[in-house]
Amino acid sequence: MGGLDISGDVVAVAASTVGSVLMLSLVGVFVAHYPKHPSGDVRLSGMLQQSSIRQIAKVATTVYIPCLAFTRLGSRLSIDTMKEVWPMVLYAPAQCLLGTLVAWLVCRVFLVPKQFRQEFILACSHPNMIAVPLVMLEVLCQQSQLAGEDSCSERSAAFVFVSVVGWYLYFWTVGLETIKHLSPETQALEANQGGEGSSTIWQSLKQLVNNFFNPPLIGSLSGLVVGLVPELQDLFFGGKAPLLFSTSAAKTYAAAVVGVMSTVMFVTLGKSIPSLDLREHAAKLLRMFRPADKRSLEDVEVAGPDDTSTNSSVQLMASRDSISVGAVLAGPSQCSDQPSSHQQQHTVPASYDDNGVLLIDVDRVLEENHLSLALARANGQDDARATSSATVPPSATALKLLVPATSNATTTPEQKQEKDHQSAASWGARNLVLFVVTSMLVLPGSKLGLIIWLGPHVFGSGANAALVQLVLCIQSITPTANLLVVVCQREGARASAERMSRGILLQYTVAIGSLLIFTALGVAAFY
């Protein structure tokens, strides 16, 4: 089986790819957590806060990615290339559909929780079609098995972008619509609009049109047209192109895509880790093997440098079904033991650390001008109601309330959403392993088998046939595209983005083995 021989260069590039991802993940965790916010809330900690990540994701998908799509497709495509390998355009959405089908079957057979199925399927069905294949093919073209391929690197890169045309068209229509449904904002809007009849249908059609004409898709279609029309290609690309200044500017933005997307991806991964304190994780493990902690509901801790001044009052009320916290944020003359009847109760999200400490960001409440806040969480204790009051210094940055960690009661929608985020890694070890096995072993093996079986019938035995099939093979065995995490952040599906980021990191830890195995099989099959 000499055809299975793969040089050390291929092993090195696979190891280097995995090593780079692991290094980037460490940097992302650091940027996400340091400097720490006084409240300890990971959303507010780090050089990039959660709100900043979403804004960067919006800029990336509105400016950087359209520039990348236009410059790569416009400069690489040609009519001659497209005539011979046009089925590659159809293969990209076909493999996404195959991934969707296989992942759906896995979810049904292995009982993946319903709330995670959509993102599980989405992550399995959208592999990395550009960055990893280009790196792998650059090295493979230097191997002895591909010595007979003239201009191997240039041709393989052109074939990659032919396939990307179909991938872009699929992702920025079907994929984008799926991601929008992961957003809590979209889910709430759909719930409010349920049963509105014709107006809902009209809004759906309008939304479909808006989704189709999004910046990345416009950039892809523009690049496709420019690449296939020689006269237009001469206007934008080449040493004497009249509009070269515009493509030079676009290439500048395109060059930053990998860095920007990596930042969003790995800072999202960092934000999915609530704490880096090893003692907290050790305590969490210990609590798994002992009864629930019976702490008092009256324990209050205030974070801030000033412990003496009084500017706000807090009251705790506990019952069997819920714990509510009523707070009046006002000046000393306005404070009272109970919130006034005319004051509106407002529910705001609060975070819980691994020790069961409820964190309320006082700065955030003050900035949003909330006069009161109410938070409900079951305590599992007796029916007796307990009350206590405490003072919050004006310089305090966070209020910490010791709350029992166990709960069986109904929570508010806001609390449910926050609880869902706090369990951002709730795919669990079983589902994470299932995701990696499906996306890195089952699907690549299935797609490689289909390419070996159908490839000769579709592409024949022409000069480009072997290289085209190898390109499709490499594009079929890569981890999930980082773009999914970026777009999830843009659309407000933060918890989904964090869960996917952990799955993608785990994919790369096994990629060094899976990439080598399937690459060797592909080279042996086509050369």
From TrEMBL:
Keywords: Membrane, Transmembrane, Transmembrane helix, Transport. It comes from the Eukaryota. It is found in: Endomembrane system; Membrane. The keyword Amino-acid biosynthesis does not apply. One of its GO terms (cellular component) is membrane. It is a multi-pass membrane protein. The chain crosses the membrane at residues 12-34, 55-73, 85-107, 119-137, 157-176, 212-230, 250-269, 432-454, 466-487, 508-526. Pfam families: Mem_trans. One of its GO terms (biological process) is transmembrane transport. InterPro entries: Mem_transp_PIN-like, PILS1/3/4/5/7. The keyword Glycosyltransferase does not apply. Belongs to the auxin efflux carrier (TC 2.A.69.2) family. Involved in cellular auxin homeostasis by regulating auxin metabolism. Regulates intracellular auxin accumulation at the endoplasmic reticulum and thus auxin availability for nuclear auxin signaling. This is Uncharacterized protein. It comes from Salpingoeca rosetta (strain ATCC 50818 / BSB-021).
